[in-house]
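Hi,

Apologies if this is the wrong queue. I'm a grad student, and the batch job for Alpha-1,4 glucan phosphorylase from Hoeflea marina produced an output file that my downstream script rejects. I'm not sure whether the problem is my script or the file. Here is the sequence I used:
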Amino acid sequence: MMNKAASAALPSPPPRVSTPETLAAEIIERLTYSIGKDAKVAKPHDWMTATILVVRDRIIDRWMASTRETYETSGKRVYYLSLEFLIGRLTRDAVSNLGLLEEVRTALGSLGVDFDVIAALEPDAALGNGGLGRLAACFMESMATVGVPAYGYGIRYVHGLFRQQVSDGWQVELPETWLAHGNPWEFERRESAYEIGFGGIVDTVGDASSDTQRCIWRPQERVIATAYDTPVVGWRAKRVNTLRLWTAQPIDPILLDAFNAGDHIGALKESNKAEALARVLYPADGTPAGQELRLRQEYFFSSASLQDILRRHLQQYGDLRTLPDKVAIQLNDTHPAVSVAEMMRLLIDVHRMDFDQAWDITRKVFSYTNHTLLPEALESWPVPLFEKLLPRHMQLVYAINAKILRFARLEKKYDDEKIRSVSLIDEGGDRRVRMGNLAFLGSHSTNGVSALHTDLMKQTVFADLHGLYPDRINNKTNGITPRRWLMQCNPGLFSLLRETIGDAFMDDAERLKGLDSHTGDSEFRARFAAVKHANKVRLSNLVARRMGIKVDPSAMFDVQIKRIHEYKRQLLNIIETVALYDQIRSHPERDWVPRVKFFAGKAAPSYHNAKLIIKLANDVARVINNDPSVRGLLKIVFIPNYNVSLAEVMVPAADLSEQISTAGMEASGTGNMKMALNGALTIGTLDGANVEMQDCVGAENIVIFGMTTAEVAERRANGYVPREVIEGSRELSQALTAIASGVFSQNDEDRFADLTNGIYEHDWFMVAADFDAYARAQRSVDALWLDEEAWYSRTIRNTARMGWFSSDRTIRQYAKDIWKAGP
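Support response: The file is valid. Your script probably expects a header line. Output copied below for reference.
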């Protein structure tokens, strides 16, 4: 890297002209000289790539300026480590944030090309699963927007999360081939390559009686991590940050002796093992091999990222003792928690620090975001597996643990039970390394992602760790970027808002409050409703095109889109749908509100009950959608392969947003924020960010039902008997009987026995306990829908009052309270 004087001497290039005429000429030039096509024979994907390359040039100018500015001012950098970045398509996002949407659209129009058509050709980057990965993407955009210098670090998955198909109602997992034709947004950085080791032995050299003794890890396996960089553009291109993703390569791509001896498969063994590290997101971990691959992935990207961070710091500052002044590393959940042990290894073994100095620097540099209270989601690894793959790290984990447990016993007077709770090693049953405890203890800050979630962390999963370090836990309620989730995905509403309240909300989402005064304006309400209807027509057309199902855009669009998991309670929604189906058939004389129930989401490949829920949704849809006695009043649609691009169509079309998790189990949620921002009414429990949403939008503008977190805990503690609840609820009992007796699975009456028996026997997720309250809440939603003025007054207030949930606000809080970075 050049020194500051040399950097300052380089002239900055003049700003590029971005008129439609200039852009059109550059697109033709790129089409000719970068893609090798004449405009007369160019295909839509050629135009897409040429357009991206022209837009990318303008981003690069700002990218280099941003990097140079951080370097010259010695600004503190934030490094965001996440196993997921669900970035979605980048073209529209980049063009919009550059402020060139109309110019690019006009330029392409002059060439006979439709911008919307070619933008839709860009594949969704398959780099994430759900809320955690999309949050990371929103945060990267917001860090660039608010001026925080940042790198995101993750894995460049070739296939990422699976592509979901539905066959006969069942989820089928297929590889997602998003990189099949390359990625014009990324840049390979061959110079940023690091060796990553696994297995082997640890040698001790030097005199044990002196300070010269040190450990040398001699890995049995080694791979190379190579970086690919993607620029992340902030709003109005104030800053461009970097998303750096790692791919794995073998040190020896082919064992030539084995190949020449005829062992063609064995010759590629090392290559295949290395490539598996960056092949699939979340390999099924139900087998020992799956667990090992997942731990390898987590260490692979963590080690590469930390080596890169330390190299950059030493290049610029030359002294790792200043690391906490210039570097903040955020661990997004427990997936990168092994970074704590890896940082200790690098500081002690490679850079020759003593243990206490290395531990002090490590804790000052790291901070940790917890995303779950579910014990199974707080990762832990079998000690034998951890020690086999990472023997030196196992030594360091034990050394850290000894330091912490001595402090807990001697300074805090912890008893044996609390000692067991805070230990990095879970001694109950098979011994396991607790990654949540490692992330907590190795960080100076541990944050929750909603006020309720943060309070519950202190009381449940981290209660004794909180007692050990009472100032460490803090709250940073999640947010979403309003650029992606309002301006870009809902251009009709965006235009209406600009016309009605001006442009100030584009830079400060809380200025949306100006909309509040228009809820009583009948003309505005009519225009707001017209935008919603147009968005519903767009979704209806997508459903007809992809699935051959016709839905009525004038019906209520009731939407539940999220990862399929029992705690999110898609099952509660489906059971209530079955009960509503019975009521519509039994009481045809009533004035039923037409509804379309939309579901979308993926189930983990090894999660049996989640996959059964998908099958149940599709089986119920098959029966109800084809029953003429329903008269089209109720339809169910499960849209396969939920991703960011699909969400961008479903979110603006939602009338009702389903956020119905068992209270105390959802950390935050961000789908709730997206749909409310786009004018949907939320039906939900007091869980996650719903609590703060109710505070912001007003209790009269959200439909809350069911038990609170405290009531759930009390009911469990007092011996909850779900069978008694079911027998006391006629609608619930009839619905469960219909499901269990094969009404929706006539060729396999026992298909859903695991689901229904689970509710009768233990009902951990309180489906039966909350059912009647949920059904009553849904009927209150019906009544509100019939009063169009009341409905749109409430949904307009949701849009007006959701500005606080901008990820810009969240990032400013991280930057001020945790990272001490940015302006």
